[in-house]
Design a protein that fits this description.
The complex is a heterodimer of chains A (200) and B (175).
Chain A: H1 3-17, H2 21-43, H3 46-62, H4 74-92, H5 102-105, H6 114-133, H7 136-147, H8 152-159, H9 163-192
Helix pairs in contact in A: 1-2, 2-3, 2-4, 3-4, 4-8, 6-9, 7-9, 8-9
Chain B: H1 3-23, H2 29-78, E1 106-110, E2 123-130, H3 131-136, H4 142-145, E3 152-159, E4 165-171
Antiparallel strand pairs in B: 1-4, 2-3, 3-4
Chain lengths: 200, 175
């Protein structure tokens, strides 16, 4: 828990509950990116992540008076809310076939050469897809602890489980992810192999 | 180095890379526009909802006062003083059970609606009325004859199917 960081949040939440528009706008600007990145990594879709950001902040403006700073920091509270909305959204859309989200594939060109960029893009795409294919309980811990740098204690609070559970899930999630990446790369290599005709 | 260690190392590098890429991602500004528009809409709705709440509370209080007043008035009319007269409208389907005293002999005096028919179904409503009412109905009472009268007398009103009183039955010993 970050007390120093959460104290302005408490004040902003109190003012938001009283109907202060500027306080709510400040809260949004401080925390929207956190929620957006979490939702984007969890769903693998930019548009769905945008919807989830909206839903989370709409819920926040409705229930601002119910927030109890003694129970959790606002960031943890928002992670919990984002997780809830993400799960609900994924459950609702489970029978839909998602088209490839082109925004996910566009990566900033940071490397020195084009070849390095391509390799980097391919690796990141594989990781992203492998994360999205993980079961939700493993995906959550990977996204929170490995990609969002959330502490185990905060992650446990956001997920509503014990710290030991977060540790064990993370260990299992990393193994599953490594396995998926290995298999994914193997499939890519197999696909690249030239076809050979054998005469019998 | 084992294959699993290599894959874990590669995974850590990939995750690091992904985290760096994701850190540069920001929510599009249109989301903020939508969220703030929803905030404004919600704040506009809040004001009438408070008014509505006040109106609801006021309506509930008014209804409560009305019901309480009606009940109080009903109790007042039911517990009438013995010398008070009241007009009672009987519903056509109202039934009443009257227990007649076994040693009481009654006389019947037709007051309205003509004589009672032989097969006409009637209902009997027992009422406690002031003795002076008997005089108004043309029945001589002890008060008129100079005897010490009781303040009230129990009479039976005979009501026809149309709800109109056909007659009044008074115990003979009250006459």
């Amino acid at each position: 828990m970050q007390d120093a960081a959460s104290s302005p949040d408490i004040d902003l939440m109190r003012r938001t509950a009283a109907g202060d528009r500027d306080a709510f706008a400040s809260l949004y600007r401080m925390h929207h990116a956190t929620v957006y990145r979490f939702a984007r990594l969890m769903t693998g879709s930019t548009t769905t992540a945008e919807d989830i950001v909206q839903e989370v902040f709409l819920a926040l403006m409705r229930d601002a008076s119910r927030y109890d700073p003694a129970r959790a920091s606002l960031t943890t509270y928002l992670y919990g809310s984002a997780r809830h909305h993400t799960r609900r959204r994924l459950l609702r859309d489970r029978f839909l076939v998602r088209l490839e989200d082109q925004a996910d594939l566009c990566l900033p060109a940071a490397s020195a050469t084009a070849a390095e960029d391509l390799i980097r893009q391919r690796d990141v795409q594989h990781v992203r897809r492998a994360i999205v294919r993980l079961p939700a309980r493993y995906r959550e811990v990977i996204v929170l602890c490995d990609l969002q740098d959330v502490s185990y204690a905060d992650a446990a609070q956001a997920l509503g489980c014990a710290i030991g559970t977060v540790r064990s899930r993370l260990h299992r999630a990393r193994h599953l992810l490594a396995d998926k990446l290995l298999r994914g790369l193997a499939c890519v290599d197999m696909a690249r192999r030239p076809t050979v005709r054998c005469e019998v | 180095m084992k294959q699993s260690e290599r894959s874990q190392e590669r995974l850590a590098q990939s995750l690091q890379m992904l985290a760096e890429i994701e850190a540069s991602n920001e929510t599009p500004s249109r989301v903020e526009t939508v969220v703030m528009a929803r905030w404004d809409a919600m704040q506009k709705r809040r004001v009438p909802s408070r008014t509505k709440r006040v109106v609801r509370v006021a309506t509930a209080m008014a209804a409560g006062i009305t019901i309480f007043g009606a009940l109080a008035w009903h109790n007042l009319t039911v517990r009438l003083k013995p010398d008070t007269t009241a007009t009672v409208r009987l519903k056509p389907d109202t039934t009443a059970t009257v227990r007649l005293k076994p040693d009481t002999t009654y006389t019947t005096v037709a007051v309205v609606g003509g004589p009672l028919m032989a097969d006409e179904p009637i209902r009997v409503v027992r009422m406690r009325v002031a003795r002076s009412v008997l005089g108004e109905l043309g029945i001589p009472s002890p008060a008129q004859r100079g005897a010490a009268p009781a303040a009230t007398v129990d009479i039976d009103v005979l009501v026809g199917e149309d709800g109109v009183a056909r007659g009044v039955r008074v115990p003979i010993n009250e006459l």
